[in-house]
Amino acid sequence: MMNHFFRNTAFLLAILLLSMPLYVLAQPGFDPGVPDGAPVDGGLSILAIAGVTYAARKFHAKRKKSNDPSEE
Predict the structure, then answer these.
(1) How far, in Å, CA of 62 to CA of 2, rounded?
(2) Angle at CA of residue 29, ends 24 and 33, nearest 5°
(3) Taking the model in full, what pTM does it have?
(4) Please, what is the Cα angle at 71 between 68 and 72, to 5 degrees?
(5) Would you say the C-alpha torsion 51, 54, 58, 60 has a positive or negative sign?
(6) Rounded Cα gap, residues 38 and 28, in angstroms
(7) For the segment 4-42, what is each residue's pLDDT rounded down to a tens digit?
């Protein structure tokens, strides 16, 4: 009885996984009035600048702490 259950479950899981690309790769139709893709502009560059600034401050603080003569 259990072998039959697992075989049916495995079959249904295989069918589900094999049919998944049909749903994942589906694209909506092209509309001439809609711009292509998402704009990548000011928001992404602000995040990149903030990340570089944060990393530079952490690096500077770590370097300053390792060169601090008062700890010795």
Answers:
(1) 60
(2) 135
(3) 0.41
(4) 105
(5) positive
(6) 15
(7) 878 888 899 998 888 776 666 656 666 677 666 666 676
Q: What angle do CA 16, 9, 5 make, to 5 degrees?
A: 165
The DSSP code sequence of 1-61 is: -HHHHHHHHHHHHHHHHHHHHHHHS--PPP-TTSPSS---SHHHHHHHHHHHHHHHHHHHH
Residues 6+ apart with CB under 8 A from 71: 65
Cα 23 from Cα 9, distance rounded (Å): 21
Q: Which amino acid, 59? A: F
Look up residue 65 and give its amino acid.
Answer: K
Phi, psi angle pair for 11, to nearest 5°: -65, -45
